[in-house]
Design brief:
Blueprint (H helix, E strand, L loop, with lengths): L8 H9 L11 H8 L29 H13 L5 E2 L12 E4 L7 E13 L21 E6 L17 E5 L4 E6 L23 E2 L1 E6 L27 H6 L6 E5 L2 E2 L26 E2 L10 E4 L18 H12 L2 E6 L3 E4 L12 H8 L13 H13 L5 E2 L15 E2 L1 E4 L8
Parallel strand pairs: 2-14, 3-5, 3-7, 9-13, 10-11
Antiparallel strand pairs: 1-11, 3-4, 5-6, 6-8, 9-14, 12-13, 12-17, 15-16
Helix pairs in contact: 6-7
Amino acid sequence: MLPPLCRPRFLILAALLLGLAGMPAGPDPVEAQETTIRDFTLPLPLFKADSAWNQRADTAAVLPESETQILILYRTLLGDRTGLMPPGYGLDDPWPYMDVNCDHYAVPIFRAGSAMAPVELIDYQGSPGGVTDKFILNPDGTIDIPSPDGAVRPSGPEGTEADGHLILFNPATGLMYDLWQATTARNGDGTSQGGGQVGPVIHSAGAADYFSADGSGANPPGYFSATATGAPLIAGLITPEDIESGVIAHALACAVPGLRNTNTDDPYAPFPWDIYYPASLTEGDFYNTNPLSLAAGQRLRLKETLVGEDGLPLDETALAPITRMFLQALRIYGLYLRDNAGGFTFYAEDVHTAPLNLPLEEVNRLSGREPGSSLEAGRTPWQLLMETLNLNLELIPLAVGWEGDGHDPSKATITAANFEVISPAGQPAQ
């Protein structure tokens, strides 16, 4: 079982809010990695040089509505449900801090095989899935995707409450297939056992898409994918290759509770003004109807001077080097809102596949540990770094100002914010 720092608190809260109490623990990461560890290197940079994910954000203009949009998100993270749909959706406990998914709800990456195989389009609840016209539907309603080159494990937690994300990446061509709610194990009656299951065959998926590592990192308007906004799973992902290079030189993908969707009559037909490039669609199940809330594809940037939860300037030199690397990326490249989640969350490669090829002494340095520290049993270098990052991020709130217990989060004000909303990304040249 992974330590709690790799299973962020807000995701457990979100699961409870969605009726998913009693989440089973994931498998031991070391055992899983014996069969699913990635054995190839991702190319850097991913996507075109002028892709939204590679555009610098440090000189972008701050939007006039930035303070209002940050305030709405701040209140939502404190427990305000105003504007959230469906009724009752939202956080029970205030948690206005960042977290990075590195196990449950993270993104595992596997090598794609050379042969193609049919995959049924059905999600974990047994509902028919779908694809865009990128795919050709077979007469039986399946689509063809690469067979995995070995065992794969859709993201956990174990069971049907998982996102079941995975990427099949072909390192020779740069083509990647993204899946949501992928099934590698079925019950006797043919129903899916959900995410977190290791298996050699992908039987079905609730959604599928594919992208090129040399492409724009975005879909045409209106297209959906394995994410709620139509973006590639790998876009904005923190990978071992980033850390090995010494810098995260791209924007990060982020999710928040309730992306904006103001079409209350039909949220599955969102208005164009609720979607910003590089998103191509937005959330239709869990969303925010407030016209000033943050929308899919909007871009945020970390401010130069940070404050802690006490409102005083934060000494960043006391943070681990891995955390400072993360913060630098948020200042230079910013973040894009890519999905809906139970908190203010970012994405890293799943600990079950991430191969961090650094000496232990460098891992110790990045995590701020004493030289000569050993790696504890049942822990991987990637897990250690992500746990350190998550622990440090509990010191950096989105904003400060709320007085806490007994005070209405819908009336919270901000005395200082650590983020600002900036001008949208430009579309790359064709």
